[in-house]
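Tutorial handout. Part one gives the primary structure; part two gives the three-dimensional structure as tokens.
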Amino acid sequence: MTANAVIPFALNVQKWVHEHNEGPDGKPKTHFTRIPLWWLGILGMIGGEFFNMLAYGWAPTAIVAPVGAVGVFFNGIIATLRGEAFTRWHAGGMAAIA
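Part two.
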């Protein structure tokens, strides 16, 4: 479950970096691979996916796969905290996951 929470967090870190790296002309100020926080995001995604893969080796797929929905739930929370819109449709989807 932790791996499926780390993955959306890392993805949102990368998205944040891309949004804040944009100059007034819409082009990147610097290449994203030169930003340490972007690397933290990619390493978080790789680590999360690695541990997710390990979970498939230790538990039945019927248990591990549905836990992946936790990532969607956490992404909804993180994206909302970042200022993205949260509608009734989003609330309904998150309620269905929980």
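Part three, for discussion. The mean pLDDT is 90. The CA atoms of residues 77 and 94 lie 9 Å apart.
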